[in-house]
Design goal:
Elements (H helix, E strand, L loop, with lengths): L4 H10 L2 E6 L5 H16 L3 E6 L17 E2 L4 H10 L2 E5 L11 H6 L3 E6 L10 E4 L6 H11 L8 H14 L10 H11 L5 H9 L4 H14 L1 E3 L4 E6 L1 H6 L22 E7 L6 E7 L5 H8 L3 E2 L3 E6 L3 H14 L1 H5 L1
Parallel strand pairs: 1-2, 1-4, 2-3, 4-5, 5-6, 8-9
Antiparallel strand pairs: 7-8, 9-10, 10-12, 11-12
Helix pairs in contact: 1-5, 2-5, 2-6, 5-6, 6-8
Length: about 350
Amino acid sequence: MMITLKEAATRILAANKILITAHVQPDGDAIGSSLGLAEYLKKKGKQVTVIVPNYFPDFLHWMEGADRIIQFDRHRAQAKTYISCADLIVCLDINEPARLEELAVPIVASNARKMMIDHHLQPKRFCNLTISYPDASSTCELVFRVIHGIGGFGQLTKAGAEDLYAGMCTDTGKFSYNANDPDIYIILSELLRKGIDKDRINRLIYNNYTEARFRLLGYILSEKLQVFPVLHASMFTLTRDELSRFTYLKGDTEGVVNMPLEIRGMKLSMYLREDTEKPRILFSLRSVDDFPANRMAAEFFGGGGHLNAAGGNLQCTMDEAVEIAHKALEAYRPLLVK
């Protein structure tokens, strides 16, 4: 059932044992919205637990409460206990259960009422209550609106405001895309009134990498990046062996897929990576203007996402993945060359 943001807030406050979860390979928006909502609800006296499918990037571990997030792939029994006790499960930044991977099994099987708060297109019906606003910049924006809509902004702590800012910042590429709604900047001003230091947060997110990450970045740009000038597109790939050479940590390639779009005339950037944990190839796509990265991801890479930021994964070899990527480029040639 589709409900309004105000109705969502009322339903959340009516629950006592609340479990918050987000998608596999959680990013800044997933972690920020989860911790921001959890921080607010704890101040309201609720019992709140955050569970995510697997590890999240090191550059997000500075957030207050990040050390208490339960990773399902490492603590299955503990996670299942919390799931079984919950009377409300809030699924953030997810539009379908597949995005939870193995965590989806106990979540879907739970008798608890489930609520989705998300901004991706075409949400699947796996929750009792659905809040879906694809035009929103981020799920963190929606969490802010839920809290603010019931007059709860006064109870949001500085730490909670930091979480929401971090998610909005990362999901818009530091407000460089999907950020033309004037209301976004009103929200930012409200978060700043909580005393957050956005410059410090930006440093913690974007200036918090290892030397090995910079070596990897240099390798990508000098050795791996392929540019297709006629198609106004680019692509780079990374195998497990290449990642291990640079002591890869999750999050080390965060944002790199955006960099080729800085080349004059580029419309599409594609990044293919061998998963370090499972036998599959992960795809990340970024585009500009009206090129439908989400449509390409759905058609060729078993994924989806936003117009200009999408992804997916395929169980195949890297050579097979590259071949599929070339087929995708050729199929979308008319949109790329126009």
